[in-house]
Amino acid sequence: MLVSVTSYSFLRWIKKGLETDLSIIKIAKDMGFDAIEFSTLNVPEGKTKEEWATMLAEEAKKQDLKVICYSVGGNLITGDLKEQVETLKQEVDIAAILGASLMRHDIGYTFPHTVSFAAETEKFCEAIREVADYAKTKGVKTMSENHGRYYQDIDRVEEVYYTVNHENYGVLIDIGNFLCADVDPSYAVGRLAKTATHVHLKDFLKKPIIGKEQPAGWIVTRGGNALRGTVLGDGVVPLASCLYALKFGGYNGYLTVEFEGPEEIDYALTTALKRVRALIN
C-alpha cells in the first residue's frame, strides 16, 4: 500500500495565506508522501477552477507526485437532483484535468426525519449511477465516504453501495468517521473492506460530555461523546487493527492521511507517515 495526504490536512495554512493548493504539492513530496488528494479546490482570485486544476496537475507532474483523488461535496438528499448531478459532472471534469483516477462526492449532510432512508435510497442511487456513468467516460471512478451524520452507519453505506451496483462506483472508507456515529472503527472497516476503493486515515481524541456544554473545538457524536481531531496514532482509532482488516479484506490501494487537529501540521503529517509506513512494513 502507498501513502498519500489530502490537501485538507494543510487547510489551516491555506486559510491563513501561508500556503496554497499549488505550494503544498512540493511540501507533500518533500515530506515523503507517494501521492496527494485534493479536497475541493481553493481557487485564487483571477483564476477559473479549470485553469487552477491545470496548474496543479502540471506542478504535480513536475514534482513527480501522483494526484490520486479529488474530493467534493454533494447533496443528493435534499438538493435539486438534476442540478446536483450536473454540478458533480462538472467536478468529474476537474478530476480529469487534475489527473485523478478517483473522485469522492458526498451524498448529503442532513436527512428529513419524516422520510425513511430506505424509501429515498433508489432515487438518489439513480443519480449516483448517472454521475458514475459520466465519470467512466473520463477515466474517473466515483465513490462516496462514510461522511455526514446520517451516512456513517455501516448498514447505510452497504445499502447504497449494493443498490447503486455500478462497476464505476465504490466506497471511500474513513476509519475515523465511524466514531461520529459511535461505531467501532475496526469492526466497521472489517465489514466494509471488500467494498473499499479508497481509504482515509484519521484519528480522534474522545471523551464524554459532562453536562450540556459542548467543549470548544470538539464535535459531538450521536451518543453524546466529544471528539477532537489529533495526530494519527495519538487518539482512540485502532490504526493497526484497521490496516489489518483492510489487508485481510483484500484492499491494496492508497492510504490517505487526513489531519484536522490543532497540533502543528509538519509534526502531525510526518509522524503520521512514519507510523503508517511502520505498520505497513
Count of alpha/pi helices: 9
How many strands, what sense, and barrel or not for the largest sheet?
Answer: 8 strands, parallel, barrel
Return the average pLDDT rounded to an integer: 94
Beta-strand proportion:
15-25%
The neighbouring-strand order within the major sheet is 1-2-3-4-5-6-7-11
Secondary structure tally: strands: 11
What is the first-to-last residue Cα distance? 10 Å
Oligomer: single chain
Low-confidence stretches: none
Query: What form results from the Cα inertia axes?
Result: globular
Helix-residue proportion? 25-40%
Derived from helix and strand composition plus strand pairing, the structural class reads: alpha/beta
Output the radius of gyration. 18 Å
H/E element order:
EHHEHEHEHEHEHEEEEHEH
Overview of this structure, please?
By secondary structure, this protein is of the alpha/beta class. It is 40% helix and 19% strand. The protein has nine helices and eleven strands. It has an eight-stranded parallel β-barrel with strand order 1-2-3-4-5-6-7-11, surrounded by six helices. β9 and β10 (225-230) form a beta hairpin. α3 (49-62) runs parallel beside α4 (81-98), α5 (117-137) crosses α6 and α7 (185-192) runs parallel beside α8 (239-248). The longest helix is centred in the middle third of the chain and has 21 residues, at 117-137. The radius of gyration is 18 Å and the shape is globular. The N and C termini lie close together (10 Å). The model has no long low-confidence stretch (mean pLDDT 94).
